[in-house]
Amino acid sequence: MGDATRERHADHTSRWLLHHTHQTRPQTYVSQHRIWVRLRVVSVTVIQCFDMLYRYQLNFYTLLNDQTSQYFEHQRWIELTLARATRNGEKVLIIGHIPPGQVTTTESFGDFYVPIVTKYKDTIVGQVFGHNHEDQFEVVHVDGHPSGVIYIAPSVTPFLDNNPSYRIYHMDPKTYDILDYDQYHIDLKEANSLARQNRSEEIKWRLAYTARNEYNLPDVTPASWWNLTERFEEDQQLFRKYQANKRGRGYAQDNCNKACKQFVICSARSASKQQLLQCLT
Question: Is the Cβ–Cβ distance between 178 and 169 less than 8 Å?
Fold first, then answer.
């Protein structure tokens, strides 16, 4: 992708940002934004670097870009930004598009991502991604010792027969730690039924669940989410609840056999492709 295209993208997105609060690097498509006192959001967009061109195997250009100077510059920028935030006593919320633990990502991405977010786990207050159109999570860990949670929010678009969904995170106003989240959805079956009856009632967003209450979590620490994956193994009803929530309790409630269940649990326990493959073997 040419520099002119990247610059146009940077100009387009800058309209939503306060100029004195953000720094954008068009050549690598990463940015950081100070949104509150001592809280910095580090954003990685879908166009470059740790998203479509550097970590997504279904994009041919990944094969060309995996070892470019921009790739390593992006790694250095991430580490320098986290180190600077740590020195300044700031907290960091990481947001991105494609989660690092997906089977379609490159191994090199996870090889960098897991160690760096583990190193700065006391600085990072949250990691929020999307892409999958499903309600999921990935636990960041090293040898089974959890250090972070990647929250994967479902989509508004019903791409996978999922109900349209959005999420609201609750954060501690002083520490900025994520305390819980509320998951909302629209029931498409109900909406389509109203349409067939030619009823013009307003479609309603409803609270589907709150994370801690839904999964009986004492808190939303990495250890609690890791423990939830262990409970999935023994509690089939709990596992089915997670499967239903993945698609916003939408149409597709497919049967999940033993191999399927292993993949779902391994996906939740993996923040890198290497971890996922090791868990599955």
Answer: yes
Q: Is 222 helix (H, G, I), strand (E, B) or coil?
A: helix
168 vs 176: CA distance, rounded Å: 14
Helices (H), 157-235: 188-196, 211-215, 222-234
DSSP 105: B
Tokens of 243: 């499967």
Report the alpha-carbon distance of residue 212 to residue 214 in Å, rounded.
6
pTM for the model stands at: 0.84
Give the whole-angstrom CA distance, residue 222 versus residue 227.
9
Alpha-carbon span 193 to 191, nearest angstrom: 5
Query: Whole-angstrom Cα distance, residue 69 to residue 46?
Result: 19
| CA-closest candidate to residue 125, choices 207, 36, 56, 208 | 36
Identify the CA nearest to 245 among candidates 205, 192, 206, 209.
209
As a whole-number percent, the residues of the chain with pLDDT over 70 amount to: 76
CA angle at 123 for the pair 78 and 166, rounded to the nearest 5°: 85
Task: Give φ, ψ of 156 to 5 degrees.
Answer: -75, -30
Amino acid (one-letter) located at 47: I
d(CA 216, CA 236): 15
pLDDT band with cut points at 50, 70 and 90 for residue 7: low
pLDDT per position as a tens digit, 93-105: 999 888 888 877 7
Is residue 124 within 8 Å of 82, Cβ to Cβ?
Answer: yes
Per the CB < 8 A criterion, the answer to whether 125 and 93 are in contact is: yes
